[in-house]
## 1
Amino acid sequence: MSKIIEGLLYSESHEWVKVDGNVAIIGVSDFAQSEMGDITYVEMPDVDDEIVAGDDCGALESVKTSSELVAPVSGKVVARNDALEDQPELINEDAYEAWIIKVEMSDKGELDALLNAAAYAEIAK
Amino acid sequence: MDNLLKTTCLHDLHVELGAKMSPFAGYDMPIQYSGIIDEHNAVRHAAGVFDVSHMGEVFVSGPDAESFVNHIFTNDVRPLAPGAILYGMMLYPDGGTVDDLLVYREFEPDRFLLVVNAANVDKDFAWMQEQADGFAVVLDNQSDDWGQIAVQGPEAEKAVCGALGFKEAAELSFYTFKDFERSGKRVIVSRTGYTGEDGFEIYAAPELIRNYWNIVLAAGVKPCGLGCRDTLRFEAGLPLYGDELTADISPVMAGLGMFCKLDKPEFIGKEALAEQKANGVAQKIVGIELSDKAIPRHGYPVELEDGTEVGVVTTGYHSISLDKSICFALVDSAYAALGTPLWVRVRKNAFPGVVVKKRFYQTNYKK
């Protein structure tokens, strides 16, 4: 059974979002990392890139598969977790600790389209 | 859907071990237990055990057994001694590949064991039957009667000859086998594998295979799934039927011409291969090493610098043992020479690489 944290928002493509004021901290769920297996490479957007909700903004590669990182919200990337470049396995170790990017949201209304923990639990199984 | 999947004799033990299971070749098979990287490294540096019970075993016997096998098989079994094994392919007349397989020459005269890919058992057996007209042979598909495990890695000999008690198997050189009798039943132990390491494959009745599985695990051998079987064989430059060999990819295109003996009087596909060798082929399987960490995957386009598509990736990984992004690709022959610069398109970007030898990893077979 994968871990789902109360209080975070989730996308149907298995990203999580933690809202901190105007900033969305984004990662992938424990279910996603468990499905992918050993993650070997994380492709992230650059700081200052504009990303659009629903579009690919990066990718995760495991030994076996690739999976797109789909932007759960739109906005400007204000930080990326560069530790993942050398240690992508941090996502396997704790998917909620290993955030990937932080985004300054251009439309907080987009958060309404995301799922709460209970709704996501229905998908992540 | 799931209830249409077949299971091997070890299925419940995989589930008990917490393996991640997935459909493969019509079977519900373990993809990984502790993780692909951990299992891969165990085989490279210690020992791992694979359930390969899904593989097909077809016995060919009768006065024409040798000439029949030589008719359908690209390699030459005539000089093969009892207890020895050959790798090669079965071909269609146009040179396309029916399957790649191992041929064991049995100790009993006029008898061979053909070990074929799980996904192809039915197709292969039907193919063999169609070709058997006019040959005094009996074809016996015993695929469902045999379990099989592969114990692979530098410590495989200790497990197979020690823990499992097949002491005489220590004398085997690569691509030879011995027969044993256990509980009144035949057990075949061959020094073969699909990992680039030393190792053994053990064929036996399902109940014996279950015992052997538990014994090698207790001896510290790591259970390994199909995930790392693919990463290991790929690094060692070994083809997978369906990726590097298909009905459209001949052994000459795949760079496996050394397993096709054109000096044999005849075999199915010989004329086509001779023509391909004489006049060249349009496409070849090559190895490509990328200079970036981006990972080439099956189906990704291979391009020239200007974006012209000249091929497609057949297998690709970020290599666990070599820490490099590498792939096999089917490319236009004009771009198949070692050192040719090629680009692989990974999502939006094309990453530069260079054609290298397909045996990415130095294999460690027992001489």
## 2
Amino acid sequence: MPGKLRRRVPLAGVVFALVAAMGLSACGTKENGAKTSSHPTITYWSSWRVGEPQQVIFSQAISAYEKATGNTVTVRWLGRDYPNAVKNAGAVGKAPDVYDDASDHIGDFRSHDLIADLGPVLKLAIPNEKDTVGDVIPASVLKTSSDSAGLAMIPYTLTSSGIWFDAATHPEWAASPPATFDDLLAAAQKIKAAGHPPFAQDGTVNGYNAYWLYWLLMRHGGPGTLAALGKSADGWDNPAVLAAAQDVERLVKADLFEPDYMATKYPAAQNQWAVRKEDMNINGTWLNSETSPDQVSGFQAQMFQFPSVPGGTDSVEVGSLGWSLNPKSPNLSAAESFLAFMMQKPYMTLISTQALNISPRSDVPAPATLLAAQKAIINAKSVQGTDDNASSLYSGWWNDVFLPLDDQLFSGKITAQQFVSMGKTQTASYH
Amino acid sequence: MARTLGGVRGERDRIYVPYLLPALLIYSILFIAPAAVTIWYSFTRWQGLGTEAHYTGLANYRAMLSNPVFLTSFRNTLILVVVGGAFVFALTFLTMVVVREMRGRAFVRSMLFVPSILSPIAIGTAVGFLLNPDGALNRLLSDVGLHSLTRGWLGPDLIFKCIIAAVVWIATGFYVAIMMSRVDAIPEDLYETARLAGANRLEQFRYITFPLSRDALSTGAVLWVIGAVKTFEIVIAFTGTAGTPPVQARSAAVQQYLAVTGGISGTPQLGSAAAIGVVMFLLTAVLVVALRRLLRSEAVEL
């Protein structure tokens, strides 16, 4: 990447920069050593690896940005271990100007003082368009890209979760999915009666098992109900918790999963769903791209929202992947304009058409398989983060109390009543 | 005169100090200092570089000892060390009895060693293929009429037993290699004499092989304890990385890993992780000292 900089700057400029740097070292060098010329060099550390669709899209956008502004962007394609790289660099004052973030990592980066307030970016005009960044991103998405201190990242991809099915086998669900949890159980019972296990479940992934209880908690108690369980033992007194656990108990007792579902190692169950051995799989918006190589001919993966419960809340899950800025960056305003540049419609369209993900822009249609999820997100009246943010806010409790207890409930080892009383006791002793 | 002699001896005794200093310095920097820092962090609440560590006294240790999940992981580690170790060394002894006089024993030893060099990623892939509910093992059992023996091998009830079996399968070849290298050094005429005296294979093992390889057993047992207390990657190979391992399958090292990473999307709890590390170190130290005492013997001159 320094090579790129050398090619772009004439020799005289280099000499001038050197002299200037030597003479004005106190104000010429900032935290990460970037120069403070009118064409700064922005550093960007990415969670994508070379060759992945997002890397290809972003590389294209970065080239266009460099051409349009004269600024330079040095990128490191780090892959999924990027949080440690960013945090370690931040500890020694060498964090990048821009880095990839995810809604469930905001708390971690915030605790390392690595998140700048991105409110000002919303007011920036998107180049070649008449809208500002804030105009094209729905409020529900901005909410789940923020924490109590403000907007933490500008999203470039949205995630959600729900119940996946094959629209070729079940066209009736594409038009009208099961409206209530009782309807879902009734539909599943019908499939079971016909000799087919209705639900595929990779039961060795405790986080996937927890989808059921998480969604039922959201439906019975609304957003915040699950996070409250991790916050203190009092959260367990909410009647919605017992009601949700009782629904999980009903689901388990109805025996609607593939045989030995708790012993099924990922990704066996989701791949079985892709070959129509089971009809439904509760999972994230990424399921179609994960299973597409295994899907049988004619398979039409689609997802519907988790059904309602009587008198409950119909919230929508919104998770996001996006860009955060280092608050100590010497190039903060250039980095802000870089994010506005990246939000241009052509690049966000590629997120949908090439990366097959939901773009955060409401004017860019999601891939066909995710259109229903995008519509739900745009129209959402109430939203929650992934796992109601409980897995990131109270990670120790999540791993040591909630997931183990949920696995016991989900495998039929304990009743809903036992789940609630054990959860309350264990949460009290955990804190 | 005596004072002069003493002075010379004192100087001579001290002459090793500058020679020892570089090694001592390197050892201090690489081992003693990090260990001291780890112990210090075990008394703090700390989320990693770039954040402030808050002194919390014994809070991490108290939380650990009142956390049923940590206690389960600690118990699992002890079971792995003791039960796994019993199987590993029983199989090693059995192999020593059978393989010592076998033709092609070098080949057999090599074959037994192969699992030790397999990548955990390969083992993880094989586990899914073999042990899933519709995997090769259950299919084989069904095909030979033993359908009643099919199980959900990777479910919470059985997964830890499967992990112990896998650890034994992986480790045995390594300990066979260590022990057999000692057995190879035992003079053949001892066995010939024993045979002439009418000793069968078991008696030859009891009176010749075992006593003369006891020092190798002592080394092997210590290596086993150190390795087994750190059992980690095989658990991940069995449970995958899409979620966090079920409590029934967690070892202390896995619990430490979850504290270091915060799980799938959490915040690291490095103070707790350091406390778990200290406890694992103490466990290893106690077990190693106990083993050394238990297996202490006079070296046998051949």
